[in-house]
Design a protein that fits this description.
By secondary structure, the chain is α+β, with helices and mostly antiparallel strands. The chain is built from 6 helices and 11 strands. Strand 8 and strand 9 form a beta hairpin.
């Protein structure tokens, strides 16, 4: 019995020993394997998720970047076209203005009719535009081509019309290049001045201003046509070392901080604002017989009887 017990104990001990060695290890191994399997699954799912995110970001970048570049190129092209239009318009305006000034110069020399000799609209156009920009832009022919298409005409009403026809090559991404034609026209009244006709002089028309008690027979009277000069030596005006007094309308808004003053040749005040009403004249032409209580201007009345 003792032997049997010993054998049984040995067997049980061996079983327990075997159980204590194998089962805990197996349990631990199983647990570890389960944990390892879980960590492998989590890492694999995380790697798959990061891979999907990277793929989505790559796809978005491949779509957004080309669209952004296309929009940027389209905006650049549109801005260039607008600048071309602005340059053409500026050149046409300057050409018409110089033609009108040339008309005035001719009239001042008392030449009969309109004479455009010695004036070139093309030269005036080229002098006004940015030739370097136009020559390297989408304008076909550059500045010389636009100047060659510049046309100057004089209407029966004494108006100068400058017209320019030009072509712009439009280039869009992934689209075929096409050419579009444009035309701009500018109308400018010839600067011939105002000369009253004989009927107005015979009927006794005179000129008045809203805030004066005198009337003027000559439109070029210095009371009506002011000769304004600019003086940058403002210290003598601040220190009251001149014969001019400050204007009651514009200088009261200044606090001594001005860089120049404006003076009318026949005036008694200095002005700090060129738009001051003291430097402007609103002239109205009226019949002398309708005026009551107004006396003639002493400067221009000497030229003739009222």
């Amino acid at each position: 019995m003792i032997k049997m017990k010993e054998r049984g104990q040995r067997k049980m001990f061996s079983c327990q020993k075997h159980f204590s060695k194998v089962n805990p290890v197996q349990n631990d191994n199983n647990n570890n394997k389960i944990v390892v399997k879980k960590s492998k699954r989590a890492s694999s799912s995380a790697s798959n998720l990061s891979g999907n995110e990277e793929g989505a970001m790559t796809l978005e970048a491949s779509l957004i970047v080309p669209i952004f570049l296309i929009v940027l190129l389209m905006l650049t092209s549109a801005g260039e076209i607008l600048m071309i239009h602005q340059q053409i318009s500026h050149g046409a305006c300057e050409a018409a203005k110089r033609a009108a000034v040339n008309e005035y110069r001719i009239r001042q020399k008392k030449k009969s009719g309109s004479d455009l000799s010695g004036f070139s609209a093309k030269s005036a156009f080229l002098a006004a535009v940015n030739r370097k920009f136009l020559d390297h832009s989408a304008l076909i022919g550059g500045s010389a081509g636009a100047a060659a298409a510049c046309r100057l005409t004089l209407t029966s009403k004494g108006e100068y019309i400058v017209s320019v026809r030009y072509y712009i090559r439009k280039t869009m991404p992934f689209l075929s290049t096409h050419t579009v034609s444009y035309e701009q026209s500018v109308r400018q009244k010839s600067m011939t001045g105002y000369v009253p006709d004989g009927d107005e002089l015979k009927k006794g028309y005179v000129y008045i201003t809203p805030h004066e008690a005198v009337y003027h027979k000559d439109l070029s009277c210095t009371h009506l046509s002011l000769d304004i000069s600019v003086d940058e030596d403002v210290e003598k005006y601040r220190n009251k070392r001149t014969q001019y007094k400050p204007c009651d309308k514009c200088t009261k808004h200044e606090k001594g901080d001005f860089s120049c003053v404006y003076i009318a040749k026949e005036g008694e005040s200095y002005h700090t604002d060129l738009g001051c009403s003291g430097l402007k004249r609103t002239v109205k032409q009226v019949d002398l017989s309708t005026l009551k209580g107004m006396r003639p201007c002493m400067r221009c009345a000497k030229q003739g009887d009222t």
